[in-house]
Every structure is written in structure tokens, then in C-alpha cells.
From TrEMBL:
Domain Exportin-1/Importin-beta-like: 104-251
InterPro entries: ARM-like, ARM-type_fold, Exportin-1/Importin-b-like, Importin_beta-like_NTR, TPR_TNPO3_IPO13_2nd, TPR_TNPO3_IPO13_3rd
SUPFAM superfamilies assigned: ARM repeat
Cleavable signal peptide: none
Top-level taxon of the source organism: Eukaryota
Pfam families: TPR_TNPO3_IPO13_2nd, TPR_TNPO3_IPO13_3rd, Xpo1
Protein name per the record: Exportin-1/Importin-beta-like domain-containing protein
Length: 582
């Protein structure tokens, strides 16, 4: 049944009318248009709307409809209609300029990319597009050409596009063969139109970043073009537009991910040497307080580190194994914004994984100073604002960051040793002015939590003075310091179990915290984590605490609650069965 184009235009107008406050009409229009998009008639209607060019909304709806139909319902179209659809789509693309509404341009270009991927009879879509719209054609138009080329690799790896395994493999091989054509096109585009028009420059770099997802040795061609130097020139200049700097950063990061898989030595040497020279631009961005550029540099340094980490471990400070990247990463971690530091975390995880597999003390020794500096920087980032009065809440972004810091330290601490990390924080706690700055004290105790369980119970050099300081804290100490101190005691439970003479003092310290509603829960958990040796029974003390919680909260305590405590003290298993009901 034929669909009246005017009825479609009216429904689109109703759908996008911002001044329409009639929800029923809006919902009716949305439902009707959704039904139309799912129908076979939608192919023809969309094409008619694009030719009519009535307004932006109708053209956007038509472009979106075509994309959806090609992406999800391509099987509806008879094979003999594929060529005419391609011709019509290419005609629509020819009208796209830099002034075209971006939403329409994107939908049409992605639609054509999906058509090229679906249409097996289209033998060389990339070659045909470059011939029709490229710099050497009679009617060059890089705007739609680059948009389609950006979309092709992205759509190839999209799960939404229904392509069989054989077709995907065929396209993978085809794309790899076309990389030289893409490199040549981008070289010409960047050195001509892209040199004077930022919009073309942006699209060219976006295209390159997208195509770096196609892994092939053909990328070695880049060393004979202006493209690598162009990317590096953009990223080393933090004063270019934020969008251009971000896209160039994407490009560099995508290139390094590709090089991690392909190991193209000539390209790697040129690119990595350029990245290692970005230290000064980073400091310039810091001086300008340009957080976007700072973030971009942190991304680049982290990606470089992840790409080279295997080489650094196998050939430290030799060729591509240069440890200079570690200095760059530590410079980023030294930035006052903890979100910048967090960008580097994946590298440190990967480094710890590679070193753990290597399992060589001599190699670990070379990375030890860097991990010490990392932990020291993380200590500074974990410092709470001095005017903060209460305990950090779990919903706080900074709370979550500190949790991720602890996870990272647990992963990397074997490189320098848990005792050394504990000592680092102990030295901070022993400084003369530490008592005047509660947040510095708390941050050191917080870092100690990460490694406390790794300390051998026989350790008698570092832990005793720390424990003595904890147990002699004044009652009016900041709430967050008290909270973190209680948590640290829980982490030291195995060490305390091997020093039974301290157990009464620890229990006394924890029971005092039960009187504070902010500390009661964590104090009870810490108490229950203590494991007394067989010859030293703290059963009565723990029961007293449990009863205190009962009266404090006025909640009944049942036998099954007590049975859950068996793991905390072996004698509960025997004695809790004889307790009366509460």
C-alpha cells in the first residue's frame, strides 16, 4: 500500500515540534513513524524524503531510516535492487558539504558504509568512492568521502551489523589490501585541503585513527608521507584547538595499539621518538592549566608504556626499551588532579603482570625506584581536603578513587616489597609536623592498609612503633583518622595474633570506638577479624563487644548470628551452642 508522503511529513513535524505539549499526539506520531520504519515501504519513502529536501527534520528521519534498514533489514531488499540503491545513495552523498547538518551527513555516510559491507557484488567500494569523490576526481568532495571511510572499519567490527564469518574475513582481507590507498589519500588530503581547512584536517585524522584498527604491515608506508610528522606536530602544540588535539591524540594512541600487534620497527621508532619529546609540551599545558591537553598527554604516555612494556622488561633502557616513558608517566602522576594520575593505572597493572610472569629479582630491582615514586605520589593523591569534617562516603568519586589506589598498590607492591612500602609511610608518620595535619597522617595509614596483610608476623622493626602510635591516639582525633586506624588494625590481624601481649590493648582501643556511632560498625568488624592464638582466649571480650552492639542498637541477636562468627574464633564453634537465646 502506498504511503502518502505528506502524511509522513506531518508526522515528522509533530514528532520534532518542540513547542507541542500534547504528549498523546507526540506518542501517536512516534508510534506511527516507528511502524513505517519497520515496513518495506520505508525504503521508498526515505529516498523520496531525501530527494524532496523539505527540511532538516524530514531529511534526518529519512537518513536515519535508511541506515536502520540497511543495517538491520537488508535482507528485505531484492538483489536486483542493490545497484539502484547504491546509485541513489551515492547521489545523496554528492550533495553533502561541510554546511550540511552533521546528523544527516553521519547517518547517510554510515548507511553507505553498511551497504558496502553488505553488498558482496560491490567488488571495490573504497576504490570507487575515492575515484568519485577523491582529490583527483572531476567533482572532488572530501567531506562525505572521509566520513564514509571513517565509518567503514567501525561498522566492520560492529556487532549490530549482521555479517557472516566468511564475509567478515573477506572484508578484513580487502581492508588490509586497501590501506596503501587510504594512506595515499590522507597524505594528499592533509597536505592540500587539510593544511588550510581544520574541518578537513580533523576528518583526515579521525579517518586515520579509525583505520589503525586494521592491523597490517602495510602501515610502514606512513614513514614516506607527511602524516606521522603532521600528527606529532599537532599533539606537541597544546595551543591548537581542543578538538584537533584530542583527535590527534586518538590517532597516536590507535597507532600504538596497532604497533603492539604488528611490530613495524621503522614506524615504531619514528612515532615513539616523537612521543618521548612531548615532556616539554606537557609542562606547557600544565602552565596553561589546560586540563584537556594534560589528559591527552597522559593518555599518550600511558599507551606508549603499555605498547613498550614487554620490551622495557626484556631490554630495559635499550632502544625501544627506554625507561624514559616511566619518567613521563610519573610526571603525569605528579599532577595535582587525581583523575590525570588515574589515566596511567592500566600501564602499572600491565607492568606488574609482565614482571610477575618474568619472576626475576634483578629485573624487579630496576623498576623498584619507579614503583617507590609511584606509591609516594599515590599517597599524596589520597590526601583528603583538610577542611573535610566527616568520614568519606562510598558514593563519593574520591572514595572510589582511593579504593582503586589500594587495588593498584596491592598489584605492584611485590616489585619493591610490602615492608619497604610500609616503611615509606612510617617515615611520613614520624615527621615532626604530621600531628598538625590530620589528612597527611590519614593518607599514610590508608596506604599502609594496602600492604599490611603481606607483612610477615615475625616483623618487629616497623609495625610495633606504628601500632603504639595507633593505640595511643587521643580521643579527639579526626573522625576519618580514627576510622582508617581501625581498618588498619583489621588488616594487621595476623600480625597481632602472633603478638598476644598486645591483644588486650587492641581490644580496649576498639571497644572505646564502639561508643561512636560513626565508628561502631567498623570497630566491631575489626574486632571480629582478630584471630587469637589457641593459648590466648579473647572469647569473653568479643562476646562483651557483641552484647554491647546488641544493647547499642536494641536489636535481638540470634544463634545463627553467633554461628557466623565461628571463623573469627575457633572456640565459638564449641561455645556458641551453649549460649542462651536473647
Amino acid at each position: 500500500m502506498e504511503v502518502d508522503i505528506n502524511e509522513v511529513l506531518a508526522a515528522v513535524s509533530t514528532l520534532y515540534d518542540a513547542e507541542l505539549h500534547d504528549k498523546i499526539k507526540h506518542d501517536q506520531a512516534s508510534k506511527w513513524l516507528g511502524h513505517l520504519q519497520r515496513s518495506v515501504q520505508a525504503w521508498k519513502v526515505a529516498d523520496q524524503l531525501l530527494h524532496a529536501k523539505r527540511d532538516v527534520n524530514s531529511c534526518f528521519f529519512a537518513a536515519q531510516t535508511l541506515r536502520t534498514k540497511i543495517q538491520l533489514y537488508f535482507g528485505e531488499l531484492p538483489v536486483e535492487a542493490h545497484a539502484s540503491l547504491r546509485a541513489s545513495m551515492l547521489e545523496h552523498l554528492g550533495h553533502i558539504t561541510e554546511h550540511t547538518y552533521q546528523g544527516i551527513a553521519t547517518q547517510l555516510c554510515v548507511a553507505l558504509a553498511d551497504l558496502a559491507l553488505h553488498m558482496a557484488s560491490w567488488e571495490d567500494p573504497i576504490g570507487d568512492l575515492i575515484t568519485q569523490f577523491g582529490p583527483m576526481s572531476n567533482t572532488p568532495n572530501l567531506v562525505p568521502l572521509l566520513e564514509v571511510l571513517i565509518a567503514l572499519p567501525e561498522e566492520l567490527h560492529s556487532r549490530q551489523l549482521r555479517l557472516g564469518l566468511n564475509r567478515r574475513k573477506q572484508l578484513d582481507d580487502y581492508f588490509r589490501r586497501k590501506v596503501p590507498s587510504i594512506v595515499e589519500l590522507l597524505h594528499v588530503g592533509v597536505s592540500t585541503e587539510g593544511a588550510t581547512k581544520e574541518s578537513t584536517h580533523l576528518k583526515a585524522l579521525r579517518c586515520m585513527a579509525s583505520w589503525f584498527n586494521i592491523h597490517t604491515e602495510e602501515w610502514v608506508m606512513l614513514t614516506n608521507t607527511c602524516l606521522v610528522s603532521d600528527i606529532l606536530n599537532v599533539v606537541r602544540n597544546p595551543q591548537v584547538s581542543p578538538r584537533l588535539h584530542e583527535i590527534a591524540t586518538d590517532c597516536v594512541c590507535s597507532a600504538m595499539i596497532m604497533l603492539e600487534a604488528e611490530r613495524i620497527q621503522p614506524l615504531a621508532e619514528v612515532l615513539f621518538a616523537g612521543v618521548l619529546q612531548l615532556g616539554e609540551p606537557y609542562h606547557m599545558a600544565v602552565a596553561m592549566e589546560d586540563i584537556n591537553a594534560i589528559t591527552n598527554y597522559a593518555r599518550i604516555f600511558s599507551e606508549l608504556g603499555e605498547t613498550l612494556v614487554e620490551v622495557m622488561v626484556e631490554q630495559p633502557d635499550q632502544g625501544l626499551g627506554s625507561l624514559q616513558v616511566l619518567h613521563l608517566l610519573l610526571t603525569c602522576i605528579g599532577h595535582h588532579d587525581w583523575e590525570v594520575a588515574e589515566i596511567t593505572f592500566n600501564f602499572w597493572y600491565k607492568l606488574s603482570e609482565v614482571l610477575y610472569r618474568k619472576n626475576c629479582d634483578n629485573v624487579n630491582e630496576q623498576f623498584k625506584p619507579y614503583v617507590e615514586r609511584l606509591i609516594e605520589a599515590l599517597y599524596r593523591h589520597c590526601q583528603i581536603e583538610p577542611d573535610h569534617e566527616s568520614i568519606l562516603v562510598q558514593q563519593d568519586d574520591f572514595y572510589e578513587f582511593r579504593e582503586r589506589v589500594q587495588e593498584l598498590i596491592k598489584d605492584v607492591v611485590f616489585i619493591c616489597g610490602s615492608k619497604l612500602c610500609f616503611q615509606q609511610m612510617a617515615h611520613i608518620l614520624q615527621s615532626p609536623d604530621i600531628s598538625k595535619n590530620w589528612n597527611l597522617m590519614e593518607a599514610a595509614l590508608f596506604i599502609m592498609q594496602s600492604v599490611a596483610k603481606n607483612l610477615v608476623p615475625e616483623e618487629n622493626e616497623v609495625v610495633p612503633p606504628i601500632l603504639e602510635g595507633l593505640l595511643s591516639q587521643p580521643d579527639d582525633i579526626h573522625l576519618q583518622v580514627a576510622f582508617t586506624s581501625v581498618q588498619l588494625l583489621a588488616e594487621l590481624n595476623e600480625w597481632i595474633a602472633c603478638h598476644p601481649n598486645l591483644l588486650p590493648l587492641v581490644l580496649q582501643f576498639l571497644t572505646k570506638r564502639l561508643h561512636n556511632k560513626h565508628l561502631a560498625t567498623v570497630a566491631a568488624k575489626s574486632n571480629l577479624s582478630l584471630r587469637a592464638p589457641d593459648h590466648c582466649s579473647n572469647l569473653h571480650a568479643v562476646l562483651w563487644i557483641f552484647l554491647f552492639i546488641y544493647y547499642y542498637h536494641q536489636r535481638p541477636v540470634h544463634r545463627d548470628h553467633l554461628s557466623n562468627m565461628d571463623g573469627y574464633h575457633p572456640k565459638f564453634a564449641q561455645k556458641s551452642n551453649t549460649l542462651p537465646s536473647f
